[in-house]
Every structure is written in C-alpha cells, then in structure tokens.
Specification:
The chain has 441 residues and is an alpha/beta fold. Among the domains are: 120 residues, NAD(P)-binding Rossmann-like Domain (Rossmann fold); 61 residues, no CATH class. It contains 16 helices and 16 strands. Strand 1, helix 1 and strand 2 form a beta-alpha-beta unit. Helix 8 packs across helix 14 and helix 15 crosses helix 16. The longest helix is centred in the last third of the chain and has 18 residues.
Length: 441
C-alpha cells in the first residue's frame, strides 16, 4: 500500500484526490486547515482519511505527516513548498507541487539527490501542461534536425463564452488572492533578439491580441520571466521567447488603472479602518471631499467618465460608500471585493485556453507550428482549472510511486520520461492539444 499526503483542500484539489483514491493499493490522507473540506474530498472512502492541519500554526507536526507518507503533494500557498520539501528530503520521501521553482526549492537539489528524493514542481497547467506539450514539440523538432527560432506560449483560465456574463470577463476558478498577486509581477521576454523588460507599472499596458478558433480574440500580456525558459526548454537559438497570460478584452485596460492607483498594495494599512472605497480612491487621487468622484477619477486616469473602464470600477463597487475591511492590505480588500462579484453560478462552465506558436527552421524548410488547447469544465462537476491543475500532479505522483519515474533532485516536467506518459494519460482523460503545421518556406 502506497501512502500519499495531500496538503490543502482548495479549489483544484478534488480531481487530484479522486484520481488517487481510484488507484488500487493507494491510501490518501488529505490535510486541511478546514477539516470539513478534506472530509468532503475523501467522501468516506475506505482508502482515504481527512485530518485537520494548519501549517502556519502546526508546522512542528508537518514532519510527522510527511514521514508517514511515501509522497506528499503540496497544494498550499507557494511560500510553504520549501518547508514541505525540506521535510520530504529529511525523511527520504518524494514531493510534488504545481508551483514555480523558486530559489529556496532549487537550493534543495543536491540534498534531494543525496536522499534519493524527487521534488517535482511545475506540474499543473501553467506551469505544467504548457511545459510538457511544448517540450514534446521541441524534442520532436530537434530529433528531426530542426532549430526552434521563435516560441510564444499563452494560457488563460476564463469563463466559457456562455458564462462570460460580467463586465470583467472573468470569474474565479482558483485563489482570488493568487490572481491579484500575479498582477504585481514584472515581466521579461525576448523579441527578435532583443530583451524586453516590463516593470509592473506597465505590465497590463504591454498587451496584444491573439485569435483563438472557437473562442475569438483574447488579450495577452507577458507572464513573469520568459528568458529563463530558453535554457529550461533547450532552445538557445530562439530569437523570440514569450510566455503570456490570456484574458478577455477589457481586462488589461482596467487592471492597468488598478496598478496606477496602487490598488495592489501589499502593505498592512491600519489607516484604512473606517474608510469607504469612495474615500480611498478620492485619497489616492488627492481629491478628498470631492463631490464628483467619477469625474475627478476619470480625469486623473486620463479616460472618459463614461468609458468601459469607469463602468467596471462602478460595477465592482469601487465608487461606493461600502466600507473597506479593517486591518488588511489594499490588495486583500480588492480581492475580497472581486471574489464577492466574480463567482461562477451553479452549472456554469469555466474554460482553459492554451496556445503555443513555434517557428522551426530545418535545413530544407521553415515551419509555423501551433498547438492549442480549449478545455471546458463539467457543468455541476469539476472545473477545467481543477482538472488541468490537479490531474497532471496526480498522474505524476502515481508514476513516481509505481517506479515509472526514477529521478532524484529538483525537477520540472521537461524530460520525456515525465511528459510523455503524463500527456498520454491526460489525453485518455480528454485533455489534449491540437497541433497544426504550416510550411513557410
């Protein structure tokens, strides 16, 4: 009997837990701060159990939970992953996460190899399915004597077209705070041999449009540091390397104004107590006591009072007299405001859209290769976000425990012994990218 510890019982946990519970000879422990959520995931299955665990308060017992399992899957906030990984190495166990490899995680590589532990990261959707599907095409091109000279990759978690019913074109299928934190990032990418550095204050202003068949036009803006993936993907000849995020049109224009008003501020702000949203915005533009906030705010932002952006501010309640929660950051107040209004209704579908664009040069020809995923959630069932994040991690965990992946150290799923069987299993489960090849010369 192989034992698995799942830390966290949030929005993306259900498909992962159910996949593992369905495996013969697997026992799954789900540990969550809210034990009722863990109990709901386990559902009384005889090969599962739910335990109450809060890593912020019960860190000392983390080692005991990790030691009891052959492999731990951390669905906790990314800041806790190195702590879980450290315990996995200490007890010579394996660990899987869906989050980016940070310095603290990479620093455990040598110790993990020595302990015989595999610490597999970035095995969700983005990062995860994007890496694996890209590497399948890249390795195939290399095997055929080709060179990848340009690569663009985009992913977005969005409402399905019929569920796109609010002015933001967005509903939350994963952590609202995580969405807002991602809006604080700087970005870097390579365009025609030139490095482009985008500070956070210009992130949402640096956008372009991509047309996706069956979906329509989507906005794209850069996602973090794309340059590091030139080495990760083994494509040193690339003159363009861009990783981006998809949103419906209008998102970027609105978020650019959020940034200009410093609404993604993470400083604890006790002075917000007693303020309304209206008073906060008036203070941010130096117009406290204004009788016409809408007019003054629009003038400050350089947009028309009847613009779509101002309509979105008003719809969200940012011009209202509603009080801000006390003793929180502005970002957390905004996250709460958005979470209350950007929710899926019962039975609505979400959608994951992923697109890769390659230029591959062979000795005798040049090709434009595209690979596209449009995946929908199941009405009254699992969201596409939960399936595409949770299932790759669950599949990889099964393969590690079955001895089908025999690696040690810190890894991403960019090696064929990882990505080939995971992608094959995802296709069996209905998650597949469609490839098209166009000869250019």
């Amino acid at each position: 009997m192989k034992r698995i510890l799942v830390l966290g019982a949030g929005l993306v946990a259900r498909p992962l837990v159910h996949y593992l519970l369905d495996q013969p000879d697997f026992h799954v422990t789900v540990a969550s701060r809210t034990v009722s959520k863990a109990q709901a995931l386990v559902g009384g299955r005889p090969n599962g159990r739910a335990v109450a665990f809060d890593i912020a308060r019960e860190g000392a017992s983390l080692g005991e939970l990790v030691a009891e399992a052959d492999l731990s899957i951390s669905l906790l906030p990314y800041a806790y992953h190195p702590q879980v990984a450290g315990q996995a190495v200490r007890h010579r166990r394996h660990m899987v996460t869906t989050s980016y490899v940070k310095e603290a995680m990479q620093a455990l590589d040598g110790a993990a190899q020595e302990a015989g532990s595999m610490l597999l990261n970035e095995i969700g959707v983005d990062p995860g399915i994007d890496h694996m599907s890209a590497m399948r095409i890249i390795d195939s091109a290399h095997d055929g004597g080709g060179r990848v000279t340009a690569f663009r990759s985009y992913t977005g978690g969005l409402p399905a077209p019929e569920a796109n019913t609010n002015p933001y074109g967005y509903k939350f299928s994963w952590s609202p705070r995580g969405v807002l934190l991602a809006g604080r990032n700087d970005a870097r990418y390579l365009e025609d041999g030139e490095i482009v550095e985008i500070p956070n204050r210009r992130l949402f202003a640096t956008r372009h449009t991509v047309d996706i068949e069956g979906v329509g036009a989507l906005e794209a803006y850069p996602n973090r540091d794309s340059l590091s993936y030139i080495d990760v993907y083994g494509i040193p000849q690339a003159q363009t390397m861009y990783r981006g995020t998809f949103r419906y049109p209008g998102w970027c224009a609105t978020w650019q104004k959020f940034v200009e008003l410093n609404l993604l501020d993470l400083e604890e702000r006790s002075d917000l107590a007693g303020l309304s949203w209206r008073e906060l915005l008036a203070r941010r533009i130096g117009r406290e006591g204004t009788d016409d906030l809408k007019q003054d705010l629009a003038a400050h932002l350089g947009i028309a009072p009847d613009s779509a952006v101002m309509m979105r501010f008003e719809w969200l309640g940012l011009l209202s007299d509603a009080p801000l929660p006390s003793d929180v950051t502005v970002l957390d107040a905004l996250a709460g405001q958005m979470e209350a209004r950007l929710q899926y209704k019962e039975g609505e579908r979400d959608m994951i859209v992923m697109r890769h664009d390659f230029i591959v040069e062979y000795p005798d020809r040049k090709e434009h290769v595209t690979s596209t995923l449009v995946d929908f959630g199941i009405p009254h069932g699992d969201t596409s976000m939960a399936r595409t994040v949770g299932l790759p991690a669950a599949i990889a965990a099964r393969m590690i425990l079955k001895g089908q992946i025999q690696l040690t150290g810190v890894h991403r799923p960019v090696r064929p012994e990882i990505y080939e069987p995971v992608l094959d299993e995802l296709e069996r489960l209905g998650i597949k990218l469609e490839e098209k090849v166009e000869r250019l010369a």
